[in-house]
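Quick one: structure for this chain?
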Amino acid sequence: MQKRFGVMLDMSRNGVMTADEVKKYAATIKKLGYNMIQLYTEDTYEVPGEPYFGYLRGRYSQKELKDIVAYCDSIGVEVIPCIQVLAHLNQIFMWKNYVAINDTDDILMVGDERTYELIENMFKSVKECFTSDVINIGMDEAHMLGLGKYLDKNGFENRFDIIRRHLERVLALAKKYGLKPIMWSDMFFRLANHGKYFTTDRTVITDEIVASRPEGVDLVYWDYYSETKEFYDAMLEMHARFPGETWFAGGARTWVGFASNNAFSLKTMSLAMEACRERGVQNVMMTLWANNGRLASYYAVLPTLYAVRRMYDGMTDMETIKKEFKGITGEDFDDMMLLDLPIDFGKIQRDGTHHHTYLLYSDPFLGMLDPCVKKSYKAEYEAMAEKLAAAAEKSPSYTYVFKSCEALARALAQKHDLGVRTRAAYKSGDRAAISALVEEYNTVIGKVQEFANAFRTLWFTENKPHGYDVSDIRFGALLYRLAACRDRLAAYIDGKQTSIPELEEELLPYIGHGFTSDQLDMPIPLYWRDYVTPNVL
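Got it. Here's what it folds into:
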C-alpha cells in the first residue's frame, strides 16, 4: 500500500516561496492526490545559535515553518524537512565563522566537533518546527569528500570510511532528537562505482557495500533522466538489497531555465512509475529543483504532477488524465503544456536544454554562443508568443505564469540572433544595416525590459523578495550591456569610433561543457556564469 506520494520543493537556489504560497501549493497538490511536501532548505531555515546560517537569504523563521506545518497537517499533507548535513552548503561558507569547517567546495569538514555542533543545532530547530519524525538529511554529491582540508589534516583515507563515520555521528544525533532519517543514495553507489551513480550492473552493490550502510537510515533513489524501464528496474533491485525501505525521487523539471519541461518529465516518469508500482515502492516524490536561480514557476509542472500520480495508480490513458485534470484544477492540460515551449519549442528534449536562457543573455559583441545559431527563429518565437498569449486569456489561475513565458518569447524573437546579425553587418561593412541595427537594439531593450517586468510579477506572486536581487543583477547587466553595444555601434557609424575589436574576432565553434541538443545545433551550459561571457571570474 502506498504511504507517501509527494513533492520536494527547492527553496535554496535564491527563490524561497512565501509561507502563504507554500500553503496554497499544498492545497493544490492535495487535490491532485498528494499527501507530502519536502521543503528542501540548505541554509534557508532559521537555526537558533547560528545567526549567519541563511543570513539575508530569505530563510524561513521558526514561526513561518510552524505555520506551514500546522496548515498542512490540517489538510492531510505531511511536511518533511529536507536539509543537508554534508555537502551542498555553498552559501554558509561565505562567512568566516564557517570557513574552518569547510573541507573543500561545498562540503563540511568531517570529524570536526564544530561540524557536529552545527548539525545538532539544525536538528534542534527542525524538531521544534516539524511534526513529522522523518527527515531527509541529504548526503548527496559530496564528490570531493576528504580531498581538501581533511586530506591536509589526516592524509588520504578510504572515502567510504569517511562517509560512514560521518553518517554514524549524524544518525546518533538524529536518534537523540527522535528523528528518522532518509538520505539520497548516490554516495553509496559512487564510492563503489568509480564516481558513477546510475548503472544497470547489478554486481556494483556487493554485500560489503550493503553492510557499510549504518542502521537507522532509509535510502532515496533519485533519477530524473533514465529513458528505459529496465534501468529503473535495475536500480530499484539494487536498492532493495539494503535493509529498510527504498524511497523513489523522480523529477518534474523546473530547473532548465525560465520554462518547465513537462514533456521529458512525463516521458521518463511514466516508466519510473510503472517500475515503482510493480516493485511495491511505497514512498514516492517528484523533485522540483531550481538550478540557476529559481526561474520557472512550480505551478508550470502541475500537468506532470497529476499525470505521474495517476500513472502510479495504473492509469495510462492520457485523455482520461487530461479530463480529470481539467475537472480538478479548472486548467486545460494541453494549455499548461505550452509552458514547455521555450524548451526547444516544445519538443521532447533531455534534461538540461534551455536555449532560451543563453539566447537571452548571450553577449551581442563577444558572440561566444553565436556559432551555434544556424538560422533565424524569429517566426517560431513569434508563433510561440501568440500561443502563450491565447492560453493566458483562458487560464483561471496562472495567467501571470503564461504572461511571463509570452514576454520571454517576444524578447527572444528580437534578441536570439542579434549578435549574429550584428557581426554579419559589421563584417560586410554595410553601414545602412548597422544603422538599422542601432534602432533595433532599442526595440530589443524594450522587449527585454517587458520580460523583466513580467518575470518580476511572477516572482513576487510566489516568492519572498530575497534572491530576486540576482535576477535584477542579471537583467540589469543585460540591459546595460545592450545599451552599451548600441552606443558603440552608433559611434562607429558616426565616425567617432574607427573599429569594434570584438566584432573583428573570428568566432570559434563553441566547445563549452554540457550536452549537445538534437533539435538545435547548440550546447547546453547550465549556469549563467558559463554562457554570459568568458570573462566572469
